Amino acid sequence: MDQLPLYRRLAAHYRAAIETGALAQGDRFPSVRALMGRHEVSLSTAVQLCRQLESDGWLEARPRSGNFVRRPRRLAVRPLAEPIAGQAPDPAQYVGINARVSEFIARGRQAQVKINFSSARSAPALYPAEALKNAATRALRQHPELLVSPPSNNGNATFRNALAKRAMANGMLLAPEEILVTQGCIEALNLALRAITQPGDIVAVESPTFFGLLQVLETLGLRALEIPTSPHSGISLEALQLAIQTTEKIKALVVVPHLQNPLGSIMPDAQKANLVELCRANEIPLIEDDTYSALSNDDTPLKALKAWDRDGNVIHCASLHKVLAPGLRLGWMNAGRWQSRVEMLKYVQSRNNEELAQLAAADFIASSAYDRHLRRLRSCLKTQRARTAEAIARYFPTSTRLSEPAGGLALWVELAPGLSSKALFDAALAEGIFIAPGLMFSNSNRYDGFVRLNCGAPYTPEIDSALQRLGEICNKLPSR
Amino acid sequence: MDQLPLYRRLAAHYRAAIETGALAQGDRFPSVRALMGRHEVSLSTAVQLCRQLESDGWLEARPRSGNFVRRPRRLAVRPLAEPIAGQAPDPAQYVGINARVSEFIARGRQAQVKINFSSARSAPALYPAEALKNAATRALRQHPELLVSPPSNNGNATFRNALAKRAMANGMLLAPEEILVTQGCIEALNLALRAITQPGDIVAVESPTFFGLLQVLETLGLRALEIPTSPHSGISLEALQLAIQTTEKIKALVVVPHLQNPLGSIMPDAQKANLVELCRANEIPLIEDDTYSALSNDDTPLKALKAWDRDGNVIHCASLHKVLAPGLRLGWMNAGRWQSRVEMLKYVQSRNNEELAQLAAADFIASSAYDRHLRRLRSCLKTQRARTAEAIARYFPTSTRLSEPAGGLALWVELAPGLSSKALFDAALAEGIFIAPGLMFSNSNRYDGFVRLNCGAPYTPEIDSALQRLGEICNKLPSR
What we know:
homodimer; alpha/beta; Arc Repressor Mutant, subunit A; Aspartate Aminotransferase, domain 1; Aspartate Aminotransferase, domain 2; 3 domains; 9-stranded mixed β-sheet; 5-stranded mixed β-sheet; 15 helices; 18 strands
């Protein structure tokens, strides 16, 4: 339990050997018997190793000849282009996204969906159901009056303690009392924006960004200013600077620094430092949505923007929804100099969170079992993303382009030139395949040529067939 | 378990006999031995019966003479006066209540509170802790993936089913899909107001009303128009009509028809019907906060305003927080013709509620154990209110006036003329007694002469001493 299974560790070793060139395309791969001897492993481990490499696209089995090294097809897919940063941004506008998003979601709910690539979520099987269930049962036994006592102000103390400890690894020094527990990260974002903006204000966001954020802006009467964002390094500081100089006062900036949704980009540390400073210097409150950072491939924790915050200008929002338990609505925030205001708003909006979920989660995240869970989850997601990318490389038109996120739940796919994600959505949904068209990720039509594909579920033949169908539809769709 | 304990039923019988005059003030009450024979009950039941009547103020024990019937002192306290309805209301204003409420609450938190009369809540001991704990444990066992699966849209189906069944008793015919589960009633009120108002709009509210609502209005940028409200029959329709005629357009009305907080009034059915019609005719969306109705003395369910709604103009909001489990943040709403809009807003604001609490509550409220719990809770609260009123009658200045709520958690006390609840708050808090001064229940200073006293905890000598101290302080406070 402490580690990945042996065959996965060996697979990582051989992947590295192929990537560095120690094993070249076309080379004969050691036989199962040779692997057993070389690594002193069982037959079953050696077989699993070969299967894993094959399913990830690194081996090709030739009948009666054995396994041969190959370069995965996905490596031949062109990566996404950098955005053009030097142009003035679109004028800020009241987002009109709710009607659009609601339509896509409503159609998905009404349809007979067989394969859902639309939501950014992992399969329940990837989460520690049993351990959390036991933790919750234990909490009920240890606190017999839990369900009939009013919940603690601002969150359960044990849970806030556990969060504060974990936050240290991300470079944040927070006292437990400086943490406010919320209904998921989305409530934290609502509270942050309510604390610092008035209806009509301009809020800068990444472009593309996740539709949940655009919906929050619209329902709060805020105007979204979309800032070009790199699929590799996150929000463009050059573009942001230009926006600061050329538009009305920006009242807040919302950024997903790690595994940006939908791009999957991770901001380099130097850029994070520059962003925090740029916002400080221009008196723009910086709201950080750090929902995904624990899903990065690398086990080394990423440093939050908040780690560079010296004067309370950064509002850090996070959640355990995607990383620990989709069934628990556990978010949290530190709002810097707006802390007492968000505490008041939280109380007025929805009161204090129930404590049972907090106690169960506190129990788990304070233990090393949480680290083991995260390592397994990251590894599974990596494989699932790789296999999805492999299928896209195989089935989609050759001019398709792909994000290369170093973690997370999803891929951002740029369809072949001229194809419309709306048209793909329509045709796919008719066959029970539900995707998130690029139109949902911006108030403009700029991303109609993109789709976000969720890779949260273990790869199955059904998923493979669905990706094949999507590719076939793309090959048949007329260009716009 | 199915009924109240025998001694309580007998106590109700004798209370009725005294109230109707069958037993008169000063009459000798039957001896314990006589009671045992007359009702064929045990010694312990007969003794408990006498104790209950004595503690409720209906019997006086004279040493070596036996028990004598008496009229409780509280019946001599003057009831609250009706509000003056024929005057034009104060101009609608942006509520400035947050600072005021926050100050009182913060001071309570910082103080060494020994007795808390401030919050409207019952003691945990009055709720079915064990049964709910077992229901939650069972739900965890029956749904092993519950904590790791995304919660159901708009709420858990079993829970919404159970709510819809219960709502029938309150005269509401709702399909389970027409019920949206929220984070307590307070989130439902937020969503209702967000769905139908814009910042700057005027919202009519009862006067006095609970500070939680005034806080919601302030944080949403709404203007509160306070409508005089009767301590007996609820909001004054005459005053409302006048306000409609004389002020700017009222964009919504929020009413607590049953056991209004803080007055404890219950609107008569005819008045509810008239209110629904008045709002319909004037195109004023009517938001009903029905948090307390299950706490009325009478076991016959009260009819919701929604029961008279024919065209979706009534938004019904309710919660299980006060009646079933203070530790569960379970509210729900039906928003009539704004249902799809509140569903969208709920999703954007905090996503779907976790399911564990919903399953545990569904299990319990679908059973007759819920009815038994409510009967016991009502009976306990009735006794607690009676004893608190008795203490006020004994200890407070004779010109004190009192609400006579037919249920609920609190009493609304009008202090002797010229006394300030702010001054009482200060003096009481210095001795560890925490009260809710009338200033918290309006944006005006109109209710500085009032306090709300919570009666949610079983009556103890400590509570009695605290009430005695409050009375002594009132007797010493200078008039304004």
